[in-house]
Each structure stands twice: as structure tokens, then as C-alpha cells.
Specification:
3 helices; 47% helix; 13% strand; rod-shaped; alpha+beta
């Protein structure tokens, strides 16, 4: 049992359609490979997540507003990466601990 047409014109039409379909599939494969390569490059270039972050206040010379763990989703745009010791010092100086990530608990300050 043969599922292909027997005459040459229809076979040529089928061939043309298959070539066009294969070209579209290859284009989609190329686009998917490019997206994956770009995503991989982005992940390689991404800076490591800091352990501790100090959220800065608004304006020049304004006091810092909060201490966050580096993974916190609530960190504002004005931020500075700090060390564990700087985070402990900031908390001891009265800078508020974030209520979402609770860095004071992670640092052992309660």
C-alpha cells in the first residue's frame, strides 16, 4: 500500500511542501538554539547573589533603611553589597532588619 500520489506533478508539489516545511523547522531549531545560547551566556555573566545587602536611604547622606539577606525579593533599587560583619554592625547601630527575609535571625541577632 503506497500513500504517495502516483503522478509527477503531485509528487513535485508534495516535495516542494516538504522542503518548505523542513526549512521552517530548521529556522525554529536555529532560533531555539540561539535563545538557549543567549540564556546560557546570561547565566554565566550573572553576578553571584550576595550574602547580605544594605538598602540605602533616599538622598545624599541619608541613613540606610534596611538590612536584607542577599536572596530577599524585597530589596529596593538603592542597595549596597555588604559583608556579614557589616550587616551585624548595621543591625547593632539600629538599622531595621527586613521583615520578609529576617536577616537578624540568620545572623543570630534577636
Amino acid at each position: 500500500m503506497n500513500d504517495l500520489p502516483p503522478d509527477l506533478p503531485r509528487l513535485r508539489t508534495l516535495e516542494t511542501w516538504l522542503v518548505m516545511s523542513l526549512d521552517r523547522v530548521r529556522q525554529q531549531i536555529a532560533a531555539a538554539e540561539q535563545r538557549e545560547a543567549e540564556q546560557q551566556r546570561g547565566e554565566e555573566r550573572r553576578l553571584p547573589t550576595p550574602d547580605w545587602v544594605l538598602e540605602l536611604g533616599i538622598g545624599v547622606g541619608a541613613p540606610p533603611s534596611e538590612v536584607h539577606a542577599g536572596h530577599c525579593y524585597a530589596i529596593g533599587r538603592r542597595r549596597k553589597t555588604i559583608t556579614r560583619e557589616q550587616a551585624l554592625a548595621a543591625l547593632s547601630e539600629g538599622v531595621r532588619a527586613c521583615v520578609h527575609c529576617r536577616p537578624d535571625t540568620d545572623l543570630g541577632v534577636l
